[in-house]
Write a structure and sequence with these properties.
12-stranded mixed sheet; 5-stranded parallel sheet; globular; binds magnesium ion; alpha/beta; single chain; Rossmann fold; binds adenosine monophosphate; DHBP synthase
Length: about 350
């Protein structure tokens, strides 16, 4: 079933949706980051359906979504001082913390790890669904595994209708990129996946922070790493993609045009409006992701832009990069993987 809650949450429908969750069914719902496919996290059978619907590898663990900080101790234990400080400062919000798990969490959720990923979303619809379901909700992004995360409802319906029991439409998601995932190792917060909460935000609170070395690096499928989700092909369309970023504006224009010509203009370009007239390409092959001075806007638009580009006839998708600073770290982490590390930088 499709439910339109763009303007307002409907209480009758909320009951139906929460009953589905309680009964072990799958529900797609919005959060402030991206849409999620949710199931009762304490019901291994229900969680199994998520892996099937997404085609997700079973060694890629899920994030458990809670309504309130008080519920963290239902699923996690031995919370350290640094972890508590992170919880107090960044939750609810686009922030996921990896904690020591309790036995109540089924193995299928954590892919057998002794830790569990926990997030408290800050979105009215997500909060209502978690609160009234009365159970923690495991929810990965609403997309087939490997594809860009679902941030607008048309893409999600095309991909997941028929595979889930309900889809709740809350409009376009605010942030557009998945949460920042952090694990505290030897009292240092380590960012396993960058997001809207930046390294500086964390440093300002804890005094130290590390970016996992794999954030901008290619990870092999058989590598044993802290965040298993980082090793899979991800956020990718069907067409090949190339990421192009030069700090200097003239270089950016020069090299983008060089790649456009290399493919005899048989390309789609995803870029910022400042360069729209400068790239040597017709308007119907240019997808505008906003102004390059507004990373929030670029983050919000990026996944739908990649999906839109994939629908056009072209040999390759050329994507303009951003500076790896602040939210730009998360944008570039995703784009590098979108492009399978096919990257030109100057
Ligand atoms: P998704 O739900 O698709 O947004 O992805 C969840 C991300 O969290 C993936 O990158 C997972 O590898 C990561 N994750 C979930 N649980 C854990 C855990 N216990 N330890 C480390 N990373 C985790
Ligand atoms: Mg995902």
């Amino acid at each position: 079933m499709y439910y339109n809650w763009k303007e307002q949450t409907n209480t009758e429908e909320l009951k139906i949706v929460c009953n589905l969750i309680k009964n072990g069914e799958l529900v797609v719902f919005p959060t402030e980051t991206v849409y999620g496919i949710g199931a009762n996290a304490l019901d291994a059978n229900a969680v199994g359906k998520i892996f099937i619907a997404k085609g997700r590898p079973s060694d890629n663990p899920l994030i458990i979504h809670l309504a309130d900080k008080r519920n963290i101790e239902d699923i996690a234990q031995n919370i350290t001082e640094v972890e508590q400080k992170l919880i107090d400062n960044f939750m609810p919000g686009p922030f996921t913390i990896i904690l020591k798990r309790k036995d109540i969490v089924p193995d299928i959720v954590t892919a057998g790890l002794d830790t569990v990923a926990v997030r408290i979303p800050n979105n009215i619809i997500a909060k209502a669904i978690i609160t009234f379901s009365g159970v923690p909700i495991a929810a990965p992004s609403a997309n087939i595994s490997g594809k860009p995360s679902g941030t607008n409802i048309e893409d999600i319906r095309k991909e997941l209708e028929g595979k889930v029991s309900a889809i709740v439409d809350g409009g376009k998601t605010d942030i557009g990129l998945e949460s920042t995932v952090v694990k505290v190792i030897d009292e240092v917060p380590v960012i396993l996946r960058p997001g809207k909460v930046t390294p500086d935000d964390i440093k300002n609170v804890i005094g130290k922070v590390k970016l996992d070395e794999k954030v901008f690096k290619k990870v092999d499928e058989d590598e044993n790493i802290e965040s298993p989700g980082m090793k899979y092909r991800h956020y990718s369309p069907e067409k090949p993609c190339q990421l192009i970023y030069c700090e200097n504006e003239l270089d950016q224009i020069f090299y983008m045009n060089k790649f456009i010509n290399l493919y005899n203009k048989n390309v789609v370009v995803i870029g910022s409006e400042e360069y729209k007239e400068k790239y040597n390409i017709s308007k119907d092959r240019f997808i505008n992701i906003g102004t390059k001075n507004n990373l929030d806007q670029i983050a919000q638009n990026i996944y739908s832009a990649i999906r839109e580009a994939d629908k056009l006839e072209a040999e390759i998708i050329l994507i303009e990069g951003v500076k790896k600073e602040g939210l730009g770290i998360a944008i570039m982490n995703r784009l590098l993987r979108t492009c399978g590390y096919n990257f030109f930088e100057k």
